[in-house]
Amino acid sequence: MSLEATTEVLPALAAARPVRHWITVIIPCHNEAAYIGRTIESVLGQRRRPDSIIVMCDNCDDGTQEVAARYEGVIVIESVNNTHLKSGALNQALDVATRAMDPDDFVVCMDADTIIDHELLYNAERHFRGNDRLAAVSSNHLITEFDTHHYIPLMQAMEYERDRRFVGRRKGRYGCMTGMAAMYRVRALYDVKAHYGAFYDQDNWTEDWFLTIALKHLGWRMLRPQDCMAATVPVPTLRGLFTQRVRWARGYLQTLRKFGFTRYTAIPWLKQAGLLWSTFARLAFFYLLFLSRHHLLAWWMLPIFILFTADAVNTSYRAGWRAVAAAICFPLEIFYAWLITAAIFTGYFRELFHVGSASHFKRVRR
């Protein structure tokens, strides 16, 4: 269906709305034929069914449109002259979808390789009740629905589980409104567009971080509750993971530089100093281990290793028994941590010195 045709269909649907708050789910995708079916099925299986589902196909040539069109009630549209990848596709879809919606309706933007828990829409909508300044409710992301037999996917599963626990300790008041799945109040999206010219910054490497910080500067609140879960496809290779995290880091720094040092970016900026310190501390730790290598088998080292391993197991066991085994074999995680750190510093270097272009990272799986 064309964008023009969609502008006629959606208002007709919304005019006959059976609910107080309309929920539209938007799924941007580029060559996601292998995953889009499971994603749509997870949306259709929601306890609180969405009122409309839009699959935005952006320059797909693998049959994604045909797979999505098999599902009754799903509106499949194609982007028009989009050169801004995911953010451009989302902006086109939002321009169409929000025309037929009231300011206090909700839009869910989610990745095409994500499976959302069947309670996500119901719980997300519930969090908005009685909280007029709540702009967005984000999912917490896991990988447990997918194959974690191999090293790189397993490490990501453990990483995401620890991130979920950290967000939980902060009562959901932390972090990015992830592009994997997040529900937005239409009024808040209008506010962002009015102040910044578009819903998503099309020049940003990580459009979800830009939208998160923009909403904060406009006085909106956001939440990542533990009852809104989503599972995403892991990156399967070291090279792909490194490329993904370089882009994430570059987009994060790009967002901070765009907004400058404000009350909402002060802590993120300070965290960059913390990253430098933690990297130095880890190097110093390994150097001290090298100097004291003759003492590593001493009896007094045993309680330290037990405590270290127990903490690693406790923070990752919900990712499965393989995660427990990997946590016990902690050098596996040490290598993974250094890989992520190297990717972050590479991303920062490329952003600061303008190395590479978006085409180098085109269509990398999130």
* Low-confidence segments: 359-366
Describe the biggest sheet?
7 strands, mixed
Strand order of the largest sheet: 3-2-1-4-8-6-9
SS summary, helix count: 13
CATH top level class name of the largest domain: Alpha Beta
* Helix content, binned percent: 40-55%
Number of domains: 2
C-alpha geometry? globular
Oligomer: single chain
Number of distinct beta strands:
10
In the CATH hierarchy, the architecture of the largest domain is Alpha-Beta Complex
Structural class by sheet pairing and helices: alpha/beta
CATH superfamily of the largest domain: Spore Coat Polysaccharide Biosynthesis Protein SpsA, Chain A
Q: Strand portion, in percent?
A: 5-15%
Write the layout of secondary structure elements.
Blueprint: H1 3-15, E1 23-29, H2 36-44, E2 52-57, H3 64-69, E3 74-78, H4 85-97, E4 106-110, E5 114-116, H5 120-128, E6 134-138, E7 140-142, H6 151-169, E8 181-185, H7 186-196, H8 207-217, E9 221-223, E10 229-232, H9 238-259, H10 266-291, H11 301-314, H12 321-328, H13 331-352
Parallel strand pairs: 1-2, 1-4, 2-3, 6-9, 7-10
Antiparallel strand pairs: 4-8, 5-10, 6-8
Helix pairs in contact: 1-4, 8-9, 9-13, 11-12
